[in-house]
Design goal:
Blueprint lengths: L9 H7 L4 H6 L8 H7 L4 H7 L4 H15 L7 E2 L6 E7 L1 H17 L5 E7 L5 H10 L8 E5 L2 H4 L1 H9 L31 E13 H4 L8 H4 L8 E3 L4 H26 E4 L2 H4 L12 E5 L12 E4 L5 E10 L4 H11 L2 H11 L17 E2 L3 H6 L2 H17 L2
Parallel strand pairs: 2-3, 2-4, 6-7, 6-8, 10-11
Antiparallel strand pairs: 1-3, 4-10, 5-8, 5-9, 5-10
Organism: Fusobacterium hominis
InterPro entries: DUF1858, ScdA-like_N_sf
Pfam family, one: DUF1858
């Protein structure tokens, strides 16, 4: 079957066959999982891009079609199955590891054919609104998916969303992991839910990217306290469009430094950039940030001989946990899938391909003692996270507008 032809636009290919993005990466057509890249390249035809990369068009198109014929089997890698009595898995996956993780999931399902599974795991860039809508419309535990995966706070802790089901003790951590990876043993970090309701797969860390050419005579910031010190007002770019990570940053700053810390972060804001723009901010003509706060993954794109240097904060990279919620009532049916998702193989995809450190104790995250920062379970349990987020956003954006 011929899936691809040379005159198809890149955006159409990526949307219809997302498993091909990894192949494009290997041949130097980079970052097609990023919205910013698709905006630039999306309307170009496959033929024109291949010619620009000096890749033989016929050979490459044939390779793509052969790959799809061998691996797709007429089933979309991102959404599978439809039958009565099946296990349901839904949520969001970080863009850099979505396709390789889905490939491993499909391999797992091929081996475990007795499992009847329907899943929808979208890219994190799709946002949470569709998932929130599903949760709100469910309004009853039996209508919820059996397994939820996503980063961030608002979906899982707001009372009108997952919070109400947590109070009803619908969820249970059934991973069997008693102690998380040793990388999360630093002071004030305890990721394992003491109530045993929620589990985690890994974390998305936020680090600093410093443009030494713009920094001037200011010292390189090494801590979050340095960022909030007032020395970097109107000098910092933040990933506001990455809602999960931005929300985690606001909550952690509020927990550690209070409302004044959130206001100081707002005053530091120069502009909102997508991480793919952040790593190239030294090429900007105006409003060039001295510091960008970004997911650790994107530091892989920095040129070694350029003016940009990555700094892992000494007091810890603020994290956005990748949560997994699993239904207690379905424990026996879903245990095998949960063991796979929380296991070493998936942990290594997260850590080694996405630079999203895994909580699995068998995974080597290769972090050499680097620290993390997050608000902690006591703070979550003692506060209405939805109200905290609303207040933090108001304080942040009001301060950002001040001259």
């Amino acid at each position: 079957m011929k899936y691809i032809d040379e005159n198809m636009k890149i955006v159409e290919i990526c949307n219809r066959y997302p498993e091909l993005i990894e192949i494009f990466e290997k041949y130097g057509i980079k970052n097609l999982y990023l919205e910013a890249t698709i905006k630039i390249l999306g309307n170009m035809t496959l033929k024109n891009i291949l010619i620009s990369k000096k890749i033989n068009v016929d050979t490459f198109v044939n390779m793509l079609n052969n790959y799809l014929n061998e691996n797709r089997n007429d089933v979309d890698i991102t959404t599978k199955g439809s039958s009565e009595g099946e296990i349901t898995v839904t949520g969001l996956l970080p863009c850099p590891i979505r396709i390789p993780l889905l490939e491993k999931f499909n391999e797992f399902l091929k081996v475990n054919k007795e499992l009847s599974v329907k899943y929808e795991l979208k890219a994190a860039s799709a946002g949470l609104e569709w998932l929130k809508k599903d949760v709100i419309e469910a309004n009853h535990p039996e209508k919820l998916a059996d397994i939820f995966i996503s980063a961030g706070f608002d979906l899982f802790f707001e009372d009108k969303l997952m919070g109400k089901f947590k109070k009803e003790k619908i969820f249970k951590d059934i991973t069997g992991i008693k102690t998380y990876n040793k990388d999360f043993e630093n002071e004030r970090i305890w990721l394992k839910d003491p109530d045993g309701d929620y589990s985690m797969l890994g974390v998305v860390p936020a680090v600093f990217l410093v443009n030494k050419a713009v920094l001037g005579n200011r010292e390189i910031p090494n801590t979050w306290a340095d960022i909030l010190s007032g020395k970097f007002e109107k000098s910092v770019s933040l990933p506001i469009s990455d809602f999960d990570l931005f929300n985690s940053i606001l909550i952690s700053i509020n927990q550690r430094y209070g409302e004044n810390g959130v206001k100081a972060l707002g005053k530091a804001l120069l502009k909102n950039l997508h991480p793919s723009q952040m790593v190239k901010s030294d090429k900007m003509k105006e409003d060039v940030p001295a510091i960008t706060i970004m997911p650790y993954f994107f530091t892989k794109m920095i040129k070694e001989d350029g003016p940009m240097t990555a700094i892992w904060p000494e007091d810890g990279a603020i994290i956005s946990p990748i949560f997994m919620l699993t239904k207690k009532a379905k424990e026996d049916k879903i245990k095998k899938i949960v063991d796979f998702l929380s296991g070493k193989d998936v942990g290594e995809v997260l850590s080694h391909q996405g630079l999203f450190p895994s909580i699995n104790p068998e995974v080597d995250n290769k972090l050499e003692g680097k620290k993390f920062m997050w608000c902690g379970w006591d703070y979550i349990h003692n506060n209405n996270i939805g109200d905290v987020l609303t207040n933090c956003k108001n304080l942040f954006f009001e301060s950002a507008k001040e001259e």
